[in-house]
Design a protein that fits this description.
The chain contains 7 helices and 8 strands, in the order H-H-H-H-E-E-E-E-E-E-H-H-E-E-H. The chain has 290 residues and is an alpha+beta fold. The protein folds into 3 domains: 107 residues, no CATH class; 57 residues, SH3 type barrels, CATH 2.30.30.60; 86 residues, Alpha-Beta Plaits.
């Protein structure tokens, strides 16, 4: 019973401070998370593009930066609160600095992969390689097929990509060897049309130009295009057919949709003119560079 007064004194002093620190940390993290969510929502609302997944480069960078700053702030708050609570519990925080340094060095050797991921994530965000909503293709060691999809989350350690089939691919930033950004500033829709060699080349080129003009005149498709589609001419010659290429600059990430629409229009236009396309797939090569 003689220890009860000491405990009551400790509860009114250090015990109360521990409760206040824990409660304050929880409330502060809630506020920080709420502010971070409001900032990202405001960035999403201010996006001027026609699709929620297509954003300006600045807004994508701000979105990723806001998420990183939010999580970094949360970590700092929790670490500071833990240090203050440890001090109130009588744990000699100062005396733990030297052992903590040794443990940190040991962890650094054992967690090189994590450090590598964080450094890679820092440069991804600082250099604006890609951001939330970008359509990218990630090459990873020991994997022959790159992960292609829309970026759903970028942190200092991982990048989360959702593929066209709905799968979620989580890639550590340090494991990314090459990034192909298919929605940086603009993209290019490319359709190679196989034509029988018996058909005159000039007739095919004129027909493709007419189809391109009609497509560009349609309001629904024109909003996806940055300029009218152009006929690039014959790209290859085979034994029984040659290929004529049609290209168009599109909004970032919309090249595949434009390619599908152009293919359908080309098939309809050729059928109307009595030109039969040879059997085989129509080749499309999306490109987002000059």
């Amino acid at each position: 019973m003689k220890h009860l007064p000491d405990f009551a004194t400790w509860a009114r002093g250090s015990g109360l401070e521990i409760v206040l620190f824990a409660t304050g940390a929880l409330l502060l993290t809630r506020v920080v998370a709420w502010v971070g969510a409001r900032i990202t929502d405001r960035i999403d609302a201010n996006a001027q593009e026609t699709d929620a997944l297509v954003r300006s480069e600045a807004s994508k960078h701000r979105h990723a930066l806001a998420q990183v700053i939010t999580w970094t702030t949360l970590v700092v708050i929790y670490c500071a609160a833990a240090a203050e609570i440890a001090a109130r519990l009588g744990v000699p925080v100062g005396n733990l600095l030297a052992p903590a340094a040794v443990v940190a060095v040991a962890l650094a050797f054992g967690a090189q992969r994590i450090v590598q991921d964080i450094l890679a994530g820092f440069f991804i965000i600082a250099e604006r390689q890609y951001g939330f909503g970008d359509l990218i293709s990630l090459s990873v060691p020991n994997t022959s097929i790159p992960a292609t999809g829309t970026v759903e989350d970028v942190t200092l350690r991982i990048t989360t990509v959702r593929t066209a089939s709905g799968e979620v691919v989580i890639v550590p930033n340090g494991q990314i060897t090459q990034v192909t950004n298919l929605s940086r500033d603009w993209a290019r829709a490319v359709v190679d049309v196989p034509v029988p060699t018996a058909v005159e080349v000039n007739r095919v080129s004129d027909l493709l130009r007419q189809i391109a003009e009609e497509a560009y005149g349609e309001q629904g498709l024109r909003r996806l295009l940055l300029d009218p589609p152009a006929v690039m001419g014959v790209q290859s010659i085979d034994v029984d057919h040659f290929q004529v290429r049609l290209v168009a600059r599109t909004l970032p990430g919309r090249q595949f949709e434009v390619e599908r629409i152009l293919r359908a229009r080309i098939a309809t236009g050729f059928r109307r003119e009595g030109i039969l396309l040879p059997a085989g797939p129509v080749i499309a090569e999306p490109d987002g560079t000059d």
